[in-house]
Amino acid sequence: MTGDANPGHERHMTEKIRWGILGTGRIAGAFAQGLKFLPDANLKAVGSRTHAAADHFGNLYDIPRRHASYEALAADPDIDVVYIATPHTLHHDNTILCLEAGKAVLCEKPFAINKTQSENMIAVARRKGLFLMEAMWTRYIPAVIELQKLLSLDVIGDIRMMEANIGFCAKYDPSNRFFNPELGGGSLLDIGVYPIALSYLLLGPPARITAMADIGRTGVDERASVTFGYPEGRLAVLNFSVTTDMTNDAVIFGTKGWIRIHSPVHRPHRLTVTKKVIPDAALSRLPEIVKRLSRIPVLTPIKNLLMSRREGSLIFPIKGNGYNYEAAEVMGCLRKGKLESARMTLDETRSIIDTMDQIRALWGLKYPCEH
Ligand SMILES: NC(=O)c1ccc[n+]([C@@H]2O[C@H](COP(=O)([O-])OP(=O)(O)OC[C@H]3O[C@@H](n4cnc5c(N)ncnc54)[C@H](OP(=O)(O)O)[C@@H]3O)[C@@H](O)[C@H]2O)c1
Description:
Elements: E1 17-22, H1 26-35, E2 41-47, H2 51-61, E3 65-67, H3 70-75, E4 81-84, H4 88-100, E5 104-108, H5 115-128, E6 132-135, H6 142-152, E7 159-167, H7 187-203, E8 208-215, E9 221-229, E10 235-241, E11 249-254, E12 257-261, E13 270-276, H8 280-284, H9 287-295, H10 300-307, E14 309-315, H11 323-336, H12 346-363
Parallel strand pairs: 1-2, 1-4, 2-3, 4-5, 5-6, 7-10
Antiparallel strand pairs: 7-11, 8-9, 9-10, 11-12, 12-13, 13-14
Helix pairs in contact: 1-11, 4-5, 5-12, 7-12
The structure holds NADP nicotinamide-adenine-dinucleotide phosphate.
NADP nicotinamide-adenine-dinucleotide phosphate binds near residues 27, 53, 90, 183 and 190.
């Protein structure tokens, strides 16, 4: 089900949309900055576990209403939509708290710890007739939208394979959210979700899954490799880590060439398209010529030219800090009375979480909240 009109949100057609931010950590600050690039957004409230943090954050980002609990933020009658910026394990309860209080919700990635949680959240949004979206910001970045256009224009032919690598070396601290199982630590939920969401965008849900992880000192996946298989032999190879710096890029291989999504793949602005000058199909119509050319040494440069590739880079600048695009999508949906984003439907979000459940099952990795 995608985005039925919600007549209760008609007033959003004319007025600024009033945001509240739940949590005051690193990403909450980046999102608050992102909202500043949107003239029709009004960052009105922040909620924290402590008054001091809410006040500090409010001062930093010029937010008038500061709440000393998440419950008080959810109950604030002066906000339309809440952005959830707490650790993964809290997304479920925080999202449901806000939905039950009648607020639309943009929830950070990963949307939930597991499929059951994601289904609960989606069920509440649908029951209440409220907008809900996973903050998979990459989906709304201009280069990613342009990438899809290039692929639909058959620039590299049929996709046969893709690979993506995303990783960084987090300072080891068993208590922080990268390593702490109580907070849903590990690379899969934190950054593996990006290449997985990219593979969904390009190839849909996988038909087959293999996965291997290095389970680290705190019992969560510090590094992992996942392979997805699709109908007609397509493959995706995805690597991610919270303990290794990686190239943070992706390559999509087609029958006529390939496209590189340059780093950072979760917020890209540059694509390089590499095309065969003469596609395989055309070459196969000239087998004799090619064969003859390869036998005559002096003509090798000509053969190389025929077989060579043309390459060009395309730049798609990011206006703002990147988070403004997902926020603009939320506001566009609210103004149209949509209950979900067509670019990142709740069914797709749920399917991605389901796939991550299947990957964790292969590793035998469960979080304490699942026991
Ligand atoms: N889209 C992106 O680019 C991106 C980037 C980074 C993170 N994220 C996602 O955003 C979420 C938060 O990440 P973050 O890096 O912002 O985390 P963070 O810096 O640790 O901040 C998390 C905030 O959540 C609140 N919180 C509530 N219970 C907590 C607990 N038990 N431990 C720690 N914090 C708690 C705190 O705010 P109060 O003290 O004010 O209540 C804290 O400041 C994660 O789910 C992550 O996957 C997304």
